[in-house]
């Protein structure tokens, strides 16, 4: 073994990966060193899909089931996306599930009982989320009650409010076509392709621009080939997905045609892009990570910690409102269980499975989407197995454990090398 | 040395529960000068710094900045006045990288987007001036840095800004020989550029090498604030360990919390308690 | 709040009736119908009352019972969450000299003086028969029937299932019908029901011709998936509880039938008995039900549920169980008119 | 203001509080300084009781209601006591509720279906708890899956196991008199007095012995008068409680007599004493705090961190088993909902309201008892108010918030003075 | 100086992900001697210590304790061999008090019950020997201690035990004048009592004052291990900053990871990589 001098020069001296090979080697040693990014969650997802595909090949792998997956997981994923913000601060929001229920109930009341147009109802629902989040945030940040207790109280109170809003137990139907479309209709195939193309072009533009700027400034940057590879990868993934979703999946084409990208997909994608931008590219996002990593250090750096803490609850409850709207659309109605039962645990679970830490400072919005996908695949696959209720619960638990241990084992080296 | 001190604090009391840590402390800091704050372990140096920077609320006391009374309720107030502090317990965010830590709370932006290239360049330049040669990447999380590297990042962070008062709490404690020299030189340069600098150190050689004035804390009381040229090495050590030395320091062992120092003009005003 | 009672110990002699309802989520009836009708009946009889809901929580159920006994009720009417807690509550009440009634659900091995109910098995039976009727109307050939059972933790769901199984099982055995996928819906949760049914449909490759849904909420969940696949109206769906939503679905042709339980009558019967007991009187019911566990013949009032199809939706409205405004809003006004609802 | 020299002499130099007055002053300045101990939870409890007592004077303040309070809160309190151990490490056990359900179902099966004597059933239930805890602990500590995910999987799987054990939808009655007695019978008045006396004498012995040892070693100690005051205080509290519980509380003495201390009270008391001893006076307990406070520091100090992590899950699940037994006894039966609905959230809430931190390193078993009391009082009081379901949820949430903000505000100074 | 070294490590490699921090490092520690380990910030001193104490697994290398090959897989193994370490990042439990921290992992017990009075007394005695005068109470949480007080607690913790090798990573960095003197004296006393001591420090005066040997790390390579009497102040600084000084240190700038040091007999054996 001959060691070449790896480190010399000024403080910014780095091993630049000037070639693709070097870049790959660098990535691989980063993975080996524990900096694994989305890999474990993706691995877990692959294992899960393989298991279900082997056990139920025809139904699990059908285009129709692929489309189902998105609508089934949408509400939990949206709520989880909001929860990521709260978890990034090391806080918790137990009330997010029922908050989504309250917002859905407001939506249903405004559109069905009061008869306003759909957009008024959506605005009202989101406004409700904003108010809820502000209230929770103020109680946590200003009075200083632990978020677990505040949101446990919210969990109880919102449950009651849902009951009151749906008149103690009746359902409120949603008959508005626009609202129903959100979770039940698809984009036209052409529009699907157009949006996918737009996404790829946009991504390419951002990546190339960044590459150029950094090169111009003389900063270290990935080789252009790697950038191209990334763009190509995205194009392939999006292309395949859109292609599969644009296949005909109607049971009976004579009756009706059923194809295209479900509308919730672009909804989730746009929110994912927006929130990722906020977290990664704005100083507000930076401050969230700082407060979550070391609240005292953030305070000393002059960050208004209270404002950040309040704001994440506002974001979380607003996203819960969006989740509630999607859930109401999917169920065609709102009932006292909307946002109840396992919604909250699944949403927090989605974020955590994706890699977000409960202790704050570590997590991405993408985690919620990946973890939400794991939860959705489990529910979807289990639904095809035909177990009795008891067995189904047990197997669901075990499958979740399987996915999580793939994740844990592939993160293993991180702990071993001390990089956490 | 200019006529009005940049910062003057008077009559500061501070207790943590039953323990009184600072009693009637006064301190004057002049622009263009390095004021060394010395004292034994647990004397209250870091606590005094944290009171000045708005981290701890004080029980009593007043702050004058540039002769004007000011209220410093939290670190943002201090930053707004142009006070930058390197804390002894460095207070870096372990989950952020070096550049992110250095610009925390004052990120460079273009529009609403963070301007990462600019920040990375500025950070590299500042660190280059501090002789740190072993940092692999500026995008490394600070949790993976060595003790001295962390210290350097914290120092670099504080001097990045156009501040008027820089307070450094034992900045060279973890630094190597070359790095220490660089930091001391930097401290001198800051003062020469007209900033006020407060330097806390246990190393008397460093203190005598760069400071213009020395302020000594003893068990939470300010026992002397004198020009460096007016005092000897041995005298300072005596002040630190015994609270007095010759004419300087505490009058009696259990005296009223007086500021028996020679070089402070506003001595009598700081006796009042609120 | 429905507590008309003052809080004075002197009320010990005046009759006061406590009612514990089971939950508010498995069915809309408890809070929106039973509470209302019981209140009406008690007010009419001029007795004090306290109606509480245990929210599907056994601990809360017992706590409420303790509190009611503490606050001096003379008669206690319970809808048990399960026979175990039910028995514990009834026994405790009895030991304190409080009269007891089993409302809607019989507490096995319990000690209640009366039992007032609809027959849950016959509810299931009506659902099974309704589905058969709708399939026959469509002259479906060897239809695949999927089950959306109620909560696996709810004993009533088991009773409903016994009912519809008694009708449909012979058809399956005779190869007239084919048994499709069957799942229980945890906590009667409509959102989960949507996913469950969607997966049933995927699993069966779209080949589901009828859905036996245990109540209107689950039925609506199935209908929402059918709509998405443009199969609504072609696949009959059952229900229960005659909710406005269920009735609307029936009017629109998306749902085949629902089961209406005239809660007002049940409430009236129960409150009559309770008022009598509270005053220390005895009443004859002329009917008994055998408690299979305790081996006791419990004096009972049993009411019969009623199947509702498009033709007789108006009966439910006429009964005042739901209002015309609730059902005939917006686009449903025309459908109501067509169905003869005025 | 004349300042006397507070600090001088060697490292152990302390202000000794030699007089009662000095001690009281010392305590008060400790409270002002944020070292508040149980005070906030007790304050919250007092506020709650006052509110309910004012609104429902005759029923809330009756002896019968006081006795109810204990049996109503027992199961949640017991589960919360176990959860404190898990929370002390900064972990969470979402499965504790359904674990108690599984253990209860095992108990019911063994005693009712299989017909074994009660003690076999109890042993089987606790053994089940031990096995569950070991499994969870191994997955968390050895494979490294986050405890949230492991116990979420447990939450699902155990729910299924309960369903399977009680055969989907039915329930298993418990007819064994010993088991039924646990949550439904009372001690004889004499036995109640005897146990109270024993507790006071035991406490006095421990306190006086400790006082003597420390005096003999020349260490700082509380003045003897303060020690006597503490012992007297305990005697008064216990005496009053036993007196009230020994009052006749039958609604109709002709039917039956009902008096004495409920049996669950000594059960909880004994477990409280045992676990407090373990946490405060053994090195195992010390290590739990260390691992919770700084896992890396504990590892460097040579503590077997994995073993500690596994053990807390074992304790938690075993206490869940005990909670399950009490719940089964109280319900006279076990059904698929045992341990479900809000049991888990209430148990975690109880620990947190009592003052245990979700981030580890801070908490006591007493917290679970105090927090459990808050939860029980809220449920009990709300049960007397006669609200409809929706309103009741809302008011319960608000009352919980009230109790928590009394707590938060009285802890306020802690943050202000920097002592956390 | 005894014949067999107490601890000998050879050929240690250690990488964190893509960054190699230690390359083929060898170190010999003799009982009765103070070995000073010096090196620039980020040279890898703390990492080497953490490898020896079992905190970090090594990628390659062997450990000989008292001439016997040993495996140190975790801190418990190290403690069992009698190795005590004061880490640079002190690793105290903030939620425990001073006494609890000092006895962590090795509590005194009578039966199964913790023997608090004994521990409190022992702690008080040990701290008294370290000149720390401002600690209000031994039952104070360490989170409320000043930087120097924390440092002192960590040192006191390490010397409480009958160990055979004590490693101190920059123990005096936060200490005052008097406390530093005490700790250096303590270090000397430990060595004189026959223990092996490894002292990491950036302060050359301290190093020359107490050490018997000096080992210098440069960018993760051991460039020299010599007797203190055989080397000058300036030479050590040169080794630290440039990696060589006259005949000592690296042969060429990009040489094979050789241990070009003068005073290590087993040099040739440490070339083998696994
Ligand atoms: N948050 C706190 N709570 C209670 N006591 C505290 C707190 N912070 C500091 N103290 C006490 O205040 C005294 C002064 O601490 P401070 O950190 O100001 O000392 P220092 O002069 O900076 O010492 P060093 O040189 O060791 O850093 C110490 O005795 C310390 O124990
Ligand atoms: N966990 C880690 N992950 C990645 N890199 C690390 C990690 N720990 C240390 N390093 C790197 O290893 C190098 C050596 O660090 P180490 O702490 O051993 O230095 P040191 O010699 O103790 O320096 P100092 O004098 O500043 O304490 C540094 O460049 C540091 O960035
Ligand atoms: Mg300090
Ligand atoms: Mg180091």
- Round the mean pLDDT of chain A to the nearest integer and report it: 84
Assembly annotation = heteropentamer
Q: Please give the largest β-sheet of chain B.
A: 6 strands, mixed
Kindly estimate the percentage of residues of chain A that lie in beta strands according to DSSP: under 5%
Q: How is the biggest beta sheet of chain A arranged?
A: 2 strands, antiparallel
Bound molecules: adenosine-5'-triphosphate, magnesium ion
The tally of beta strands of chain B, per DSSP, is 14
Number of strands of chain A: 2
Give start-end ranges of low-pLDDT stretches of chain B.
253-274
Mean pLDDT of chain B: 84
SSE-based structural type of chain A? mainly alpha
Arrangement of strands in the largest sheet of chain A = 1-2
CATH superfamily caption of the largest domain in chain B: P-loop containing nucleotide triphosphate hydrolases
The CATH C-level class name of the largest domain in chain B:
Alpha Beta
Helical percentage of chain A? over 70%
Q: What's the N-to-C terminus distance of chain B?
A: 31 Å
Q: Treating each run of at least 4 consecutive H or I residues as one helix, how many helices of chain B? A: 8
Order of helices and strands of chain A: HHHHHHHEHHHHHHHEHHH
Q: Which word captures the global form of chain A?
A: globular
GO molecular function (chains B, E): ATP binding; ATP hydrolysis activity
Protein name (chains B, E): Monosaccharide ABC transporter ATP-binding protein, CUT2 family
Keywords (chains B, E): ATP-binding, Nucleotide-binding
Organism (chains B, E): Micromonospora coriariae
What does this structure look like?
The complex is a heteropentamer, with 2 copies of chain A (420 residues), 2 copies of chain B (274 residues) and 1 copy of chain C (342 residues). Chain A is an all-alpha fold. Chain A has a domain of 228 residues. Helices cover 72% and strands 1% of the residues of chain A. Chain B has 2 domains: 170 residues, Rossmann fold (3-Layer(aba) Sandwich), CATH 3.40.50.300; 68 residues, no CATH class. The longest helix of chain B is centred in the C-terminal third of the chain and has 16 residues. Chain B contains 8 helices and 14 strands. In chain B, a hairpin with a 2-residue loop joins strand 7 and strand 8. Chain B has 274 residues and is an alpha/beta fold. The radius of gyration of chain B is 19 Å and the shape is globular. Chain C has 342 residues and is of the alpha/beta class. In chain C, the strands form 3 sheets. Chain C has a 7-stranded mixed β-sheet, sandwiched between helices. Chain C is globular, with a radius of gyration of 21 Å. The two termini of chain C are 34 Å apart. The N terminus of chain C is likely disordered. Chains A and E meet through helix 1 of A and strand 2 of E. Bound molecules: adenosine-5'-triphosphate (2 copies) and magnesium ion (2 copies). One magnesium ion binds next to helix 1 of chain B. Chains B, E: It comes from Micromonospora coriariae. Chains B, E: This is Monosaccharide ABC transporter ATP-binding protein, CUT2 family.
């Amino acid at each position: 073994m001959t060691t070449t001098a790896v480190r010399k020069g000024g403080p910014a001296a780095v091993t630049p990966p000037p070639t693709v090979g070097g870049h790959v080697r660098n990535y691989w040693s980063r993975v080996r060193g524990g900096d694994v990014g989305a890999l474990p969650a993706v691995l877990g997802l692959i294992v899960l899909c393989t298991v279900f595909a082997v056990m139920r090949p025809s139904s699990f792998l059908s285009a129709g089931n692929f489309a189902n997956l998105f609508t089934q997981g949408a509400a939990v994923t949206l709520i989880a996306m909001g929860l990521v913000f709260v978890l990034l601060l090391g806080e918790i929001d137990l009330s997010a599930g029922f908050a989504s229920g309250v917002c859905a109930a407001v939506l249903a009341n405004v559109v069905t009982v009061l008869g306003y147009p759909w957009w008024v109802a959506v605005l009202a629902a989101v406004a409700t989320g904003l108010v809820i989040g502000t209230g929770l945030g103020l109680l946590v940040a200003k009075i200083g009650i632990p978020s677990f207790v505040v949101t446990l109280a919210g969990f109880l109170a919102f449950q009651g409010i849902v009951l009151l809003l749906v008149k103690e137990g009746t359902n409120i139907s949603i008959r508005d076509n626009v609202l129903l479309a959100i979770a039940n209709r698809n984009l036209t195939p052409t529009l699907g392709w157009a949006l996918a193309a737009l996404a790829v072009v946009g991504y390419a533009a951002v990546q190339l621009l960044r590459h150029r700027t950094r090169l111009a400034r003389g900063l270290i940057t990935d080789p252009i080939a790697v950038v191209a590879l990334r763009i190509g990868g995205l194009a392939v993934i999006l292309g395949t997905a859109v292609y599969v979703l644009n296949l005909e999946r109607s049971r009976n084409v004579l009756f009706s045609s059923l194809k295209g990208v479900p509308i919730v997909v672009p909804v989730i994608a746009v929110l994912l892009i927006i929130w990722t931008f906020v977290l990664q590219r704005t100083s507000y996002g930076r401050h969230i990570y700082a407060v979550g990593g070391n609240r005292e250090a953030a305070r000393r750096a002059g960050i208004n910690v209270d404002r950040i803490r309040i704001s994440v609850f506002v974001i979380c409850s607003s996203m819960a409102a969006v989740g509630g709207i999607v859930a109401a659309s999917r169920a065609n109605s709102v009932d006292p269980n909307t946002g109840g039962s396992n919604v909250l645990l699944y949403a927090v679970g989605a974020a955590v499975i994706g890699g977000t830490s409960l202790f704050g400072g570590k997590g991405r919005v993408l985690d919620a989407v990946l973890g939400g996908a794991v939860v959705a695949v489990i529910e979807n696959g289990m639904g095809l197995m035909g177990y009795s209720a008891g067995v189904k619960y047990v197997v669901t638990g075990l499958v979740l454990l399987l996915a999580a241990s793939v994740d844990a084992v592939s993160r293993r080296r991180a702990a071993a090398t001390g990089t956490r | 040395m200019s006529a009005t001190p940049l910062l003057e604090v008077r009559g500061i009391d501070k207790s943590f529960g039953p323990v009184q840590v600072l009693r009637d402390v006064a301190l004057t800091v002049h622009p263009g000068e390095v004021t060394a704050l010395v004292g034994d372990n647990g004397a209250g140096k870091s606590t005094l710094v944290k009171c000045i920077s708005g981290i701890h609320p004080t029980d009593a006391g007043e702050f004058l900045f540039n002769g004007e009374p000011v209220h410093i309720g939290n670190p943002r107030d201090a930053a707004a006045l142009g006070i930058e502090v390197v804390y002894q317990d460095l207070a870096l965010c372990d989950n952020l990288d070096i550049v992110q830590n250095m610009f925390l709370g004052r990120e460079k932006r273009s529009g609403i987007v963070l301007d990462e290239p600019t920040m990375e360049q500025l950070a590299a330049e500042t660190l280059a001036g501090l002789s740190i040669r072993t940092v692999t990447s500026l995008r490394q999380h600070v949790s993976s840095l060595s003790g001295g590297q962390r210290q350097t990042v914290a120092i670099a962070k504080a001097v990045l800004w156009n501040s008027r008062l820089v307070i450094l709490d034992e900045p060279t404690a973890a630094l190597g020989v070359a790095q220490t020299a660089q930091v001391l030189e930097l401290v001198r340069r800051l003062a020469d550029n007209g900033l006020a600098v407060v330097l806390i150190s246990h190393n008397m050689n460093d203190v005598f090498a760069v400071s213009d004035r020395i302020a000594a804390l003893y068990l939470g009381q300010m026992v002397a604030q004198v020009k460096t040229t007016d005092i000897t090495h041995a005298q300072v050590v005596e002040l630190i360990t015994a609270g007095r030395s010759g004419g300087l320091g505490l009058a009696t062992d259990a005296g009223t919390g007086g500021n028996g120092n020679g070089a402070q003009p506003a001595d009598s005003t700081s006796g009042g308690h609120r | 709040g429905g507590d008309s009672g003052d809080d004075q110990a002197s009320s010990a002699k005046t009759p006061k009736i406590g009612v514990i309802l089971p939950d508010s989520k498995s069915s809309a009836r408890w809070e929106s119908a039973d509470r209302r009708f019981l209140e009406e009946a008690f007010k009419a009889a001029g007795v004090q009352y306290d109606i509480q809901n245990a929210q599907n929580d056994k601990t809360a159920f017992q706590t409420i019972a303790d509190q009611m006994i503490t606050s001096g009720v003379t008669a206690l009417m319970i809808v048990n969450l399960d026979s175990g807690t039910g028995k514990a509550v009834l026994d405790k009440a009895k030991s304190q000299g409080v009269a007891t009634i089993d409302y809607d659900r019989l507490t096995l091995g319990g000690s209640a003086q009366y039992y007032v109910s609809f027959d849950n098995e016959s509810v299931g039976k009506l659902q099974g028969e309704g589905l058969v009727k709708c399939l026959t109307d469509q002259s479906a050939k060897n239809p695949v029937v999927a089950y959306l059972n109620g909560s696996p933790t709810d004993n009533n769901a088991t009773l409903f299932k016994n009912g519809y199984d008694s009708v449909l099982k012979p058809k399956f055995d005779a190869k007239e019908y084919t048994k499709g996928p069957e799942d229980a819906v945890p906590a009667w949760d409509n959102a989960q029901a949507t996913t469950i049914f969607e997966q049933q449909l995927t699993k069966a490759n779209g080949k589901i011709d009828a859905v036996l849904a245990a109540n209107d909420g689950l039925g609506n969940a199935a209908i929402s998936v059918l709509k998405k696949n443009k199969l609504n109206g072609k696949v009959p769906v059952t229900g229960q509880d005659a909710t406005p939503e269920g009735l609307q679905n029936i009017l629109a042709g998306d749902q085949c039938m629902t089961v209406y339980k005239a809660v007002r009558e049940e409430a009236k019967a129960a409150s009559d008995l309770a008022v009598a007991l509270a005053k220390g009187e005895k009443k004859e019911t002329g009917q008994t039900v055998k408690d299979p566990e305790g081996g006791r013949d419990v004096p009972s009032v049993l009411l019969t549920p009623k199947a509702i199809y498009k033709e007789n939706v108006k009966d439910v409205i006429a009964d005042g169980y739901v209002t015309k405004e609730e059902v005939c809003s917006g686009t449903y006004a025309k459908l109501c008119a067509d169905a003869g609802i005025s």
